[in-house]
Amino acid sequence: xxxxxxxxxxxxxxxxxxxxxxxxxxxxxxxxxxxxxxxxxxxxxxxxxxxxxxxxxxxxxxxxxxxxxxxxxxxxxxxxxxxxxxxxxxxxxxxxxxxxxxxxxxxxxxxxxxxxxxxxxxxxxxxxxxxxxxxxxxxxxxxxxxxxxxxxxxxxxxxxxxxxxxxxxxxxxxxxxxxxxxxxxxxxxxxxxxxxxxxxxxxxxxxxxxxxxxxxxxxxxxxxxxxxxxxxxxxxxxxxxxxxxxxxxxxxxxxxxxxxxxxxxxxxxxxxxxxxxxxxxxxxxxxxxxxxxxxxxxxxxxxxxxxxxxxxxxxxxxxxxxxxxxxxxxxxxxxxxxxxxxxxxxxxxxxxxxxxxxxxxxxxxxxxxxxxxxxxxxxxxxxxxxxxxxxxxxxx
Length: 396
Prior knowledge:
The chain has 2 domains: 2-178 and 381-394, 3-Layer(aba) Sandwich (Rossmann fold); 182-373, Glycogen Phosphorylase B (Rossmann fold, 3-Layer(aba) Sandwich). Helices cover 36% and strands 17% of the residues. The protein contains 14 helices and 17 strands. Helix 6 (154-163) links the parallel strand 7 (148-151) and strand 8 (168-171). Residues 36-42 have low confidence and may be disordered.
């Protein structure tokens, strides 16, 4: 009865996925779960191609596709109590026979079960790809884990080690940020705001989008702080006579995001740049090409300051999520307000931080950002330890 239940549940999960009818190729490296659960929906294996190079590797896209032959084999040979999803992962990996499995979806609990599932010694590498608390990892069992976890900062390493005690954590910053190597010599955008927008479900702003501490949070509950912030940023731009650029989060197929900002920014000079579907770095092209970047609580904002771009933060969503996880620089500790950030929603405080940051000399800015960013996110384009571990498998 349990096997039938798991099988029916699995089939329900895969009914909207793509199907592959060929056995996966054997490979030294297997990239696990390449799709990010964000609006971007880019293929993460493009990042790993930059990292691994032309050395052959396979991709296990558990989010977007299903290998029919592996699924059938899993159904016919699963005589254990292992849930079918996990047995499918086990069968797929053993078919590829990789020496090393890598993921950049660091909160996928299934990845941390791999070492306990497969019947041979395997090395697993998890690379952090986003901010936020990692408390979901508390659901891992004691014998589940990972060999190497590459993190944004030492503070994040401590968070991962809290839940995955047998891992070796190494700080490298953001993989995507480290790989981006385009040089920008002329700043085209005066002030750029990094959008956090996602469309309301069913176009209903009162639709519940998640539960926070058992409280139902609607779309408008979650975005009201961003609406208020963008209006204050626009007011600041008008006073300073500066053009505002919105770095879009969505591909803008239906122009939902553009219309959202159009309704808020009626009386100032502004530009909207949506995300490009043919480039995983299009948002970086916008942000790193800006004189000043404004961020609510985005990873891209922290990546920006790690590159020395003048960046200010207004973490106005501190009331959501695990206590402290939406505060500036979490999991490092910072006071509620500082030289380039504030939790205050008062216009005068927001305007002052924007104006003062723009007026800093280059030397003053360098001194400011270096003291702050090193405790939040590293910038390490060499990624020596990560490349060393990967290259060792190429010569085995």
